[in-house]
Amino acid sequence: MKKEEVPQDDANMLEGKFKVVKYALNENGEYVKVPSVGWEPENVALGQAWDVINERVEQARQDVLAGKASPLAFHMEKNMMDEALLAKHMDLPARKVKRHLEPKEFAALDAATLQRYAETLLTTVEDLKRVPDAPSRPISSDKT
Amino acid sequence: MSKPKVPSSSGDVSIPFDHQQSAHCESGVISNLMRFHGLKVSEPLAFGIGSGLFYSHMPFLKLNGIPVTSYRILPGLIFKRFSKNMGVEMKRMKFRDQDKAMAELDRVLDQGLPVGMLTSVFYLPYLPQAFRFHFNAHNIVVFGRKGDEYLVSDPVMEGTTTIHRRALMRARFAKGTPDTNGRMYYPIVVPTGADLKTAVAKGLKRTARDMSNVPIPMFGVKGMPYLAKKLRHYETKLGERRAKLFLGNIIRMQEEIGTGGAGFRFMFAAFLQEAAGLLGKPELKKYAMEMTRIGDQWREFAFEAGRVCKGRAEASTTYGTLADRLEEIGRGEKAIFKELAKLPL
Predict the structure, then answer these.
(1) Do B251 and A44 count as a contact with CB atoms less than 8 A apart?
(2) Which stretches of chain B are assigned E, i.e. beta strand?
(3) Residue B84 contacts A where some CB pair is shorter than 8 Å
(4) Is the CB of B252 less than 8 angstroms away from the CB of A45?
(5) Which residues in chain B touch residue A79, judged by CB atoms under 8 angstroms apart?
């Protein structure tokens, strides 16, 4: 890949925070580091991975709204976790976490456990007990 | 070894650390850390000496239900092999207790030594959100502390950044594949007269050997036709949606920012170019160009694959033609690594 061939396909995946570097050939045929704002196939693959996450998060949100799952289910999906990974972070058996995904069991949780869940899932106790009114899709394949 | 100034007793530490941006985190951290200790190795050299290039497609090893494809050796191995080949001694530690892990970090920083560590990308708030998955093998260097903020050299970033103590603790103690366990490391012996030539030759030979000799079809140059065979039937076996997810993952390949199949090939080509000069073997330049050509083929593959994922491909591009491309790449890599393995260095 020549320097001028280094892709500059911006899908805002880097949020303008920085450019990445790629190795490419300069005019003398020597390898140099060249900044890049992104590359179409990588953007597409990333967007695609986020579509799957967004879908799961939204499904969980709907389940919570329908009373089929506790809000914990939503926050777990939002953190891209499954019961097993969340259980590991909480130092709890996975079957317990699974139980807490049921509205009734979740409602009976003590303050300390709620606090630990909130910290683990990067939220507050208050927010842990509810889900947003609208779906959120921070990143998606729309712009790729 | 350069002797950095021991910081004042105020509790703040700022070690003069020369951060240089790299394409990949592990090779970048090696290059940056070694330069601090007076050993100048570029990122491609670190990558090559550490025999970082590899290929594997493991249909039985799945992440989020999708088989893992990798274009490099396992995380951590580049560091291990580099150190061994260069006679560098590293102090490595892991912890159960988070406070102890932070106390040890502080203690080493107080000695004026920058510290490398394993983190989870998901818990690094300074990275763009799109990249923040539970990828638990991201290497960064911490080189100071200001109140509750730690000074960070993240090799994939243009400049240095900071992270709050609490966030850093999370990133150091993420669970998953693998648990990060607060792993940290720093060089304790960096030889002044390291035999760079021998190290380069060793690293190169090992890559060539591992790529061409592993008898299992999932690994090395056999991995590409192996995946190609599966790829050919993705759509019929998996259905359109899952086929696209599997294909997208081959592009994304559980990597972090800015690398990828082609990325590692270009970095290896850059290594071959540097090796040609260091070893006085101009023929290696020819191989560097050949590797570049293969890197370009990987790029074209990813480009076409991306279009298929997005449903934007030309009618003539199918899973079958993608598989053809992959087989061709496999033939190219087989040829070059076979020759490199035989090359007297």
Answers:
(1) yes
(2) 13-14, 53-63, 66-72, 89-93, 115-119, 138-146, 149-153, 161-164, 184-189
(3) no
(4) yes
(5) 122
Minimum distance, in Å, between the CA of residue A107 and any CA atom of chain B: 26
Q: Which residues make Cβ contacts (< 8 Å) with residue B309, sequence separation at least 6?
A: A41, A44, A45, A48, B244, B247, B248, B251
Give the whole-angstrom CA distance, residue B70 versus residue B72.
Answer: 6
Q: State ipTM.
A: 0.94
Spatial separation of the C-alpha atoms in residues B301 and B325, rounded to whole Å: 7
Coil, helix or strand for B216? coil
In the 8-state DSSP scheme, what is residue B104?
Answer: H
Find, in chain A, the residue whose alpha carbon is nearest to that of B167. A122
Task: Tell me the pLDDT tens digit for each residue of B170-225.
Answer: 999 999 988 999 999 999 999 988 899 999 999 999 999 999 998 899 999 999 99
Residues B55 and B219: beta-carbon distance below 8 Å: yes
Model-wide pTM > 0.95: no
Residues of B in contact with A35 (CB under 8 A): 158
- CA angle, B26 as apex, B20 and B27 as ends, to 5°? 60
Neighboring chain A residues of B288 at a CB cutoff of 8 Å:
31
Determine, for residues A48 and B245 on separate chains, whether the beta-carbon distance falls below 8 Å: yes
